[in-house]
Amino acid sequence: MIAAARRARGLTQQDLGDAIGYSQPNVSKIERATLQIRPAELKKIIATLEVTSADAEKMQALNEAAEARRVRAEFRLAATPGWFRDILTAEGEAKAIYSWTGERISGLLQCESYMLDQFLASGRDDVDDAVHERQIRTQLFERHPDRDYHFIISESAVERLRGARKIGGMAVALEQLRHMIDLAERHPSVTIQIVPFDDGPLYAELDFHVLQFDDSDQDFAYNESINGLTTHDKKEVPHHLDAWQAMHNSALTPEKSIALLRQAAAGCTRPPHQT
Fold this sequence. Notes:
The protein has helices spanning 2-8, 13-20, 24-31, 39-49, 53-78, 82-93, 112-122, 127-138, 140-143, 155-162, 169-186, 237-250, 254-268; strands at 96-101, 148-154, 190-195, 208-212, 220-225, 228-232. By secondary structure, it is of the alpha/beta class.
């Protein structure tokens, strides 16, 4: 609504920013709903754009609803382990993420039903909050399309999805496969590659993730397990990048990987073989 009102007034983002004391990039964030607006600041915007009283009331109501969601989100996140909050923050600041996972789909690639299935299987009792926390991660691709996200997964993770035969399992598998295909096709910054059984290495590292920043001194890698998080500082990052490159060398191209995901998704729409 702010963007539409600004354009109707014939103003640029810079014009609006100058009028309300904001930089052009921050006006852009406001219009893309990635920067919170306090009520007093919204009043300045409403006055500058001379919107109708009806539109002003709607803007204020929407902003109040957004603030309520933010408060609920912060309350939920407060129950999250500290190490995971740190990872969320780091992922939001990293210029590049390199991920390798063997038996399951990486957290940043998970759809909601797959997350739910994983948490139920692991015995967590705060499933709703856990899913909410993880969903925050998926906003990265929308907010930072100029960054790089490289995911390598084993074909065994895909086969584990296809092999689901319990009630609802195939529906979860199909949604997860389609979700990954959609991510790769909609976001040029997201690369998904699969290491096939036939040409995969005999030995593969345990799941790990590498985060790189503009300031290389902040670079680190981490492994996530049932016991929590194990981090590795910048001195160990080259080892993890070498390991990631080794998996990359064995992986299918992004195009062939998406074709494999499509084939797996097609298999999920057919009934399982009778035995």
